[in-house]
From TrEMBL:
Keywords: NADP, Oxidoreductase. The keyword Kinase does not apply. Pfam families: RmlD_sub_bind. This is dTDP-4-dehydrorhamnose reductase. Belongs to the dTDP-4-dehydrorhamnose reductase family. GO terms for molecular function: dTDP-4-dehydrorhamnose reductase activity. It comes from the Bacteria. Its EC number is 1.1.1.133. InterPro entries: dTDP_dehydrorham_reduct, NAD(P)-bd_dom_sf, RmlD-like-bd.
Amino acid sequence: MKKILLLGGHGLLGKEISRLLDERRYVLIAPTSAQLDITDYQALESILKGEMPTDVINLAARRNIDELEKDPLPGWQVNTFGAAAIGRILSKHKIRSSYFFMSTSYVFGSSLTAKAEDDAHAPVNVYGETKSVAEELIVHYCGGTGIPFWIGRASWMYGRARESFVDEVAKMLLRGEKYEAAIDQSGNTTSAAEVAGAVVSLCIEKQIACGAYHFLNEDPGRTSRFDIAREIASALAISPERVVPAESRDIFSGGGRPSISLVNTKIPPLRNWREALREYIVTRYTANHL
């Protein structure tokens, strides 16, 4: 029987993964951040040695891009040192556990070509830097020690557990407001529920080869926030003219946000992004489903 330690299990992706693990009746240990401080090495060591989980899923993160530019320390503590400490402890004590770490597309810089899993990193903000270094340390501690590990990346996730860009657009349009969306920022809008399904089935259950993986809804082109917002308007039967094109510099402040799309080269993509997004919007925001 699998015993899974889930860190960051109360966030957007975490709640979806937690639900799936419960459905499969695995033994699930999911402490809150108040119950387990991932920056406390001794506390991590104690729970890993005491519980001896078969799998560790680490989704804990500080991801407020603008706040991390002002105060980077919490990002380095949680995103980097906490994440690396897990790999170090598993290796040091020879704990027979696999390790899944959720990273981000922001380890890459802006690019006109989609980034594959093993492309070179070039982060442009503190958040991306902290995750990039964490990836390197996890490979260092787990690679070559016999610890199965996977580094997951996704982009612009949405889901019911926490409001995202997708929900912000839908709510503003439903209130009769216009929405300014960046035309110069590309990414992959992705369903958290579908990412969760792929992580659990491919990594935790099938244990595919170690390494970095991109968990994405299929997107054959470069999709901007503007494109996504117009798709949301269409799903809500609202005029797409209510979505106003804008430059990212006029919308965002603080840390730079790279214009970057990811591509899958190792695993099949999830279903088409438009299909997944429209299903989410219609189910959550149309009158028949409210």
